[in-house]
Design brief:
The protein has 82 residues and is an alpha+beta fold. The chain is built from three helices and four strands. Strand 1, helix 1 and strand 2 form a beta-alpha-beta unit. The mean pLDDT is 82.
Length: 82
């Protein structure tokens, strides 16, 4: 399982400070620095939104707001590889 975060924060300095002080164990991509390309590709309309990508590289599930991320990851891991 790989985890990464995509931030839509408009202020790169604040994002960098947050990442440094939060001790996140995964990479954070600053989408605002890339004209929201990632947010556009995944049709992000609110935050937080979480995507679980299956073994086949396709979206296995999408959670808007709070959700049971671990349950969705387990489902994706249990699904047969195609």
């Amino acid at each position: 399982v790989r985890v990464l975060a995509v931030s839509t924060d408009q202020e790169p300095a604040k994002l960098q400070q947050f990442v440094r002080t939060s001790g996140l164990a995964y990479p954070v991509i600053a989408d605002a620095q890339q004209d929201f390309e990632i947010s556009d590709q995944y049709a992000v309309s609110g935050i937080p939104v979480t995507y679980v990508i299956g073994r086949d590289g396709h979206i296995a599930s999408r959670l808007n707001g709070a959700g049971d991320i671990l349950a969705e990851v387990r489902k994706a891991l249990e699904a047969p590889a195609s």
